[in-house]
């Protein structure tokens, strides 16, 4: 039986043994990579040597006990010296006083071995050339090596890399053996769950996209993960990436994986938590001179990864504890662990945000499948990720921080001043008629990005990092700006703001999912599928699946109160709305959530409700803007109190913190009242999106107003019936709930069934 073959790059093999010590901030690393690429191209394009060959593909094999290591790479340059000796050139970005880095000479030696293995030569000259960003030589180190010494060095480095790969192989083999006979953890499927799981498996087997509307109650998280694991066990992909929009979605996935591992699956699951949430430092400053977890990070990382390889569930708490034991950055550790794992649970950003995405998740050996939870939220999130904004207020704030920490004579401070001057000048001109990113501002933002990058490389802190992120985001959007973007301006001269808004993200989403070995979009509100496919991108062969609610319509008592609450009528009909809510509360016992279209309208109706003596015993709570996870959980804990202490009435907003991802089964929640059809406020962004879709022959109002509004309504109402034993009442207040299009969108849902639609 042939041994398995593992592919590794030259750099990866070398860095198993010879690696940097400290962890550097991401923005600084990104700048170094960008400058390094520029330096390579500049040197390769101006090399004076004759017959200079650039980016020469080379490879060689190393035979380990359990596997074959296939090492590949591209030599930066190969040429003949005047005396006939072949020179292999390794180009690196450096400094004028640059000393030779052992890892760099080792990379050149690896290429030397690969070259000699394929040609009849006994010796080769290894050159490590350090250059500036323009390709100009700064320092050069050369040595001649023979075939035997190069082979010995190659085998020494490969032996260390192979030992680590063999440990990973042993774990994967145990995983595959456990998945071969893995039974569904619950023994039997819920209604609709088997059909969903079967369609997920087919989509992953065929490497297609599946658009699935899977209502609450069928257990869609488990029905997505179980077939994905079967696909991994069959070698169809190396990992499943479960993408969630909220913490609750990630928690559900981690809980499902805990059940799967308890059923016998020897799989490794990693959760990626945002850096700000998992960083243990009092003040986050990722520079190694300021953070002891960044200093020496790569020296301690191997020990942490070796221990991680013995574990199965690595959620936020487990990764934080592991990082503490090994004194490494928990966020960066989670990214490294993700590449070892079979299931990665994380936010959409790590696949779809161009400035945050971990390309390794999708492009690593074996590839990955994507499981996208609450997929109705993906398109707006990706649109936001590819959009950008810059304002005088934000630039002024960053300049103040820069002046305070680095001084007003610092180049970064001057770069902020230049960007502010460019934006002020535009605001004084024909600000509202611009239809493309103005070159003066783009040039200023590119200069700001470069200045911030230089300061990061010199060890600057938060103000430089924030400036780099702002400038990089704007420059990225300006470079991509086309007919799918809108340029929006607002504010007067002192508060001018320019936004570059992506109006449709279908192309970007499609490009990302083409890299996946199958993608499953699932949500309780994904239909109508033609609209979902327009928003998310689709190709021939992709499939759609509509599953009915598993609940009995008799569990939900639903009715419509046809009050006109269109924006122009809201003040006039506000007393009617308050009276309708109060009457419903008096007629139905139990805790209640009332959802409103905006905070302002919630405050107005709240005042009227609090003025009613008949509701004096109710415990009224309100959602606030920008609530933290802790504040949200504290408010939800009120739903656990005995009704004798007064029933809870939570006033919340559609699309807010309590409209999705909230699970209050049983007696904790008995009534939901939804005020309005949830249409978004027709601000400049929404109007621009609507005009774009109208311009390409689609119904812009339906796609940008009606559908998003009804998604909010159905999601909010879905907080009520969570299990087969739940019962409750639903009141929909808005005359538009009697419109034909609205009723058509409710058809096929539990709400529609309960209303008899």
CATH topology of the largest domain: Rossmann fold
Number of helices: 27
Strand order of the largest sheet: 10-9-11-8-12-16-7-17
Shape: globular
Q: What is the H level of CATH, i.e. the homologous superfamily of the largest domain?
A: P-loop containing nucleotide triphosphate hydrolases
Q: Whole-number radius of gyration?
A: 29 Å
Topology, number of strands: 23
Helix-residue proportion: 40-55%
Structural class: alpha/beta
In the CATH classification, which architecture of the largest domain applies?
Answer: 3-Layer(aba) Sandwich
Round the mean pLDDT to the nearest integer and report it. Answer: 92
Number of discrete domains: 4
Main sheet overview: 8 strands, parallel
CATH class of the largest domain: Alpha Beta
End-to-end separation in angstroms reads 62 Å
- Assess the beta-strand content as a share of residues: 15-25%
Unreliable stretches (pLDDT < 50, length at least 5) are none
Give the topology.
Layout: E1 5-9, H1 10-17, H2 26-46, E2 53-63, E3 68-80, E4 86-93, H3 102-118, E5 123-131, E6 137-146, H4 147-180, H5 193-206, E7 209-213, H6 220-233, E8 239-244, H7 247-262, E9 269-271, H8 275-278, H9 297-308, E10 313-314, H10 316-326, H11 330-338, E11 343-347, H12 349-352, H13 359-363, E12 368-372, H14 378-386, E13 388-391, H15 392-406, H16 411-428, H17 439-457, H18 462-480, E14 485-490, E15 497-502, H19 506-513, E16 519-523, H20 529-536, E17 543-546, E18 556-561, H21 570-587, E19 592-596, H22 599-610, E20 619-622, H23 629-636, E21 648-653, E22 671-675, H24 684-695, H25 700-717, E23 728-733, H26 740-746, H27 750-755
Parallel strand pairs: 1-3, 4-5, 7-16, 7-17, 8-11, 8-12, 9-10, 9-11, 12-16, 18-23, 19-21, 19-22, 20-21, 22-23
Antiparallel strand pairs: 2-3, 3-4, 5-6, 13-15, 14-15
């Amino acid at each position: 039986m042939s041994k398995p073959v593992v592919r590794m790059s030259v750099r990866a093999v070398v860095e198993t043994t010879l690696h940097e010590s400290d962890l550097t901030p991401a923005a600084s690393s990104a700048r170094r990579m960008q400058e390094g690429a520029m330096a390579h191209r500049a040197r390769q394009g101006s090399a004076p040597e004759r017959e200079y060959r650039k980016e020469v593909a080379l490879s060689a094999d190393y035979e380990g006990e359990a596997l074959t290591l296939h090492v590949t790479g591209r030599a930066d340059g190969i040429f003949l010296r005047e005396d006939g000796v072949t020179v292999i050139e390794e180009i690196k970005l450096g400094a004028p006083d640059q000393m030779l880095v052992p890892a760099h000479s080792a990379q050149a030696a690896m290429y030397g071995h690969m070259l000699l293995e394929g040609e009849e030569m006994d010796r080769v000259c290894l050159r490590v050339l350090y250059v500036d960003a323009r390709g100009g030589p700064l320092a050069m180190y050369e040595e001649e090596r023979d075939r035997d010494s190069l082979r010995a060095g190659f085998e020494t480095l490969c032996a260390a890399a192979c030992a680590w790969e063999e440990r990973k192989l042993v774990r994967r083999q145990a995983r595959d053996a456990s998945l071969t006979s893995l039974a569904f953890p619950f023994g039997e499927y819920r209604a609709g769950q088997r059909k969903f799981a079967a369609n997920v498996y087919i989509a992953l087997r065929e490497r297609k996209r599946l658009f699935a509307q899977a209502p609450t109650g069928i257990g869609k998280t488990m029905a997505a993960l179980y077939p994905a694991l079967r696909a991994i066990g069959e070698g169809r992909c190396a990992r499943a990436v479960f993408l969630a929009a909220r913490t609750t979605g990630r928690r559900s996935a981690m809980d499902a994986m805990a059940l799967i591992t308890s059923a016998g699956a020897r799989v490794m699951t990693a959760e990626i938590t945002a850096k700000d949430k998992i960083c243990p430092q009092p003040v986050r400053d990722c520079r190694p001179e300021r953070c002891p977890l960044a200093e020496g990070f790569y020296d301690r990382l191997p020990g942490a990864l070796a221990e991680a390889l013995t574990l199965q569930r690595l959620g936020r708490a487990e990764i934080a504890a592991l990082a503490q034991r090994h004194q490494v950055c928990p966020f960066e550790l989670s990214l490294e662990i993700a590449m070892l794992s079979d299931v990665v649970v994380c936010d959409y950003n790590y696949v779809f945000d161009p400035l945050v995405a971990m390309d390794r998740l999708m492009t690593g050996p074996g590839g990955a499948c994507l499981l996208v939870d609450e997929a109705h939220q993906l398109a707006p999130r990706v649109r936001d990720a590819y959009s950008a904004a810059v304002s005088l207020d934000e630039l002024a704030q960053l300049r103040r921080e820069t002046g305070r920490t680095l001084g007003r004579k610092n180049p970064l401070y001057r770069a902020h001043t230049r960007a502010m001057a460019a934006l002020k000048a535009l605001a004084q001109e024909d600000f509202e008629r611009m239809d493309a990113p103005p070159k003066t501002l783009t040039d200023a933002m590119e200069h700001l990005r470069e200045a911030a990058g230089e300061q990061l490389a010199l060890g600057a802190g938060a103000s430089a990092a924030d400036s780099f992120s702002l400038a990089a985001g704007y420059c990225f959007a300006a470079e991509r700006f086309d007919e799918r973007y809108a340029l929006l301006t607002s504010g007067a001269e002192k508060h001018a703001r320019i936004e570059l808004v992506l109006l449709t993200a279908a192309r970007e989403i499609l490009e990302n999912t083409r890299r996946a070995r199958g993608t499953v979009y699932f949500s309780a509100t994904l239909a109508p599928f033609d609209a979902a496919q327009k928003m998310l991108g689709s190709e021939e062969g992709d499939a759609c699946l509509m599953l009915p609610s598993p609940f009995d319509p008799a569990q939900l008592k639903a009715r419509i109160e046809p009050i006109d609450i269109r924006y122009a009528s809201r003040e006039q009909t506000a007393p009617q709305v308050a009276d309708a809510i109060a009457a419903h509360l008096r007629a139905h016992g139990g805790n209640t959530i009332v959802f409103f279209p905006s905070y302002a309208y919630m405050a107005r109706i709240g005042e009227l409700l609090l003025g009613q003596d008949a509701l004096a015993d109710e415990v009224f709570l309100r959602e606030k803007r920008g609530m933290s996870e802790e504040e949200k959980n504290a408010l939800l804990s009120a739903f656990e109190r005995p009704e004798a202490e007064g029933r809870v009435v939570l006033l919340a907003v559609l699309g807010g913190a309590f409209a999705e991802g909230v699970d209050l089964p049983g007696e904790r929640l008995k009534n939901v009242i939804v005020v309005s059809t949830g249409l978004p406020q027709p601000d400049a962004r929404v109007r621009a999106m609507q005009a774009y879709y109208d311009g390409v022959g689609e119904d812009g109002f339906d796609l940008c107003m009606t559908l998003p509004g009804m998604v909010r309504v159905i999601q909010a109402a879905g907080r009520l019936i969570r299990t087969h034993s739940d019962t409750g009442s639903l009141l929909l207040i808005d005359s538009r709930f009697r419109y034909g299009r609205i009723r058509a969108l409710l058809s096929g849902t539990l709400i529609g069934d309960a209303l008899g639609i």
